[in-house]
Design goal:
Rossmann fold; 19% strand; 8 strands
Length: 275
């Protein structure tokens, strides 16, 4: 699906009716697995939860301070249960190392970026093959996240558009300066600041894949969303300039940076993707 023109986001009542209608069509109980595997890149056991038995794998990055259990604990799995139980998607919720990378204020900014790079190697070289082995799915996947997880989802998609061809990012900040200050002269930091490096991404291999992907970036305008708005608009401007089709969805002034809204947004966007 390609996003063209401006789409109007639904009202809460419309979402409730739509989700209620879908719930009445459930056909299969949810398959859940609590998994783990060893990461040589991070030198530790990494935990991964699987929700679903079929459909495109959706790699979920946790929010700030969150874990692989967070997506279920805050009701996102239940909110998306129709899509899971009918075999449209299967969620794989990953462990996070943000407390040792971008959120580790006690570390030098470069060391924080290098820890993220180790996590990137884990995701691409270890977690993705692990998911392929568990599912038998060898096509590109989807990625998503809320808040800090949205930053990861966009960053991983832009860095690896052959691995991910669909991204749903909810309420993210896409500027690494938010985490480490004005240190973009450090290549390791700059290359993980999507709102900056996208402007200089002119490689046709990447641009062609961006243009073929399904990209959804959403923000509200309510409480606690202000931090993400500057990089949201910068990213939108860059995508427009580079003619990359994407849906930059802006929800209302009552829509806060909180799970109650992400639980409404995620099933809405999954439905719009026509999986």
């Amino acid at each position: 699906m390609k996003w063209t023109g401006r789409k109007i986001c639904p009202t809460v009542s419309a979402l409730s009716v739509k989700n209620g209608r879908k719930r009445s069509k459930r056909r299969k109980e949810m398959h859940v697995e609590f998994l783990s595997h060893w990461s040589g890149h991070l030198n530790r056991e990494m935990y991964v939860n699987r929700y679903g038995h079929a459909g495109i794998p959706v790699v979920v990055f946790a929010s700030s301070g969150g874990s692989h259990n967070e997506y279920a604990d805050f009701g996102m799995i239940e909110a998306c249960s129709w899509f899971i139980e009918t075999g449209k998607v299967q969620f794989f919720t990953l462990s996070s190392v943000d407390s040792e990378s971008w959120l580790a204020d006690w570390k030098h900014p470069h060391d924080r970026a290098e820890m993220h790079r180790a996590y990137e190697r884990y995701v691409i070289e270890e977690a993705i093959p692990f998911i392929k082995h568990k599912t038998g799915w060898f096509n590109p996947m989807m990625t998503t996240g809320c808040s800090m997880g949205a930053y990861h989802a966009v960053n991983f998609f832009l860095q690896h558009p052959d691995v991910f061809t669909k991204v749903v990012a909810l309420s993210g900040v896409y500027d690494a300066r938010f985490f480490v200050g004005d240190n973009l002269n450090d290549e390791a930091i700059y290359q993980n600041s999507p709102a900056d490096y996208i402007w200089n991404q002119n490689d046709g291999w990447f641009i062609d894949r961006y243009r073929q992907a399904d990209i959804i970036v959403c923000t509200g305008h309510g409480a606690w969303e202000a931090d993400g708005l500057p990089s949201f608009y910068t990213l939108k401007k860059a995508f427009d300039y580079k003619q990359i089709p994407a849906w930059f969805a802006e929800w209302g002034h009552d829509v806060a940076h909180d799970w109650v809204w992400w639980r409404k947004q995620m099933p809405y966007f999954l439905n719009e993707l026509n999986l």
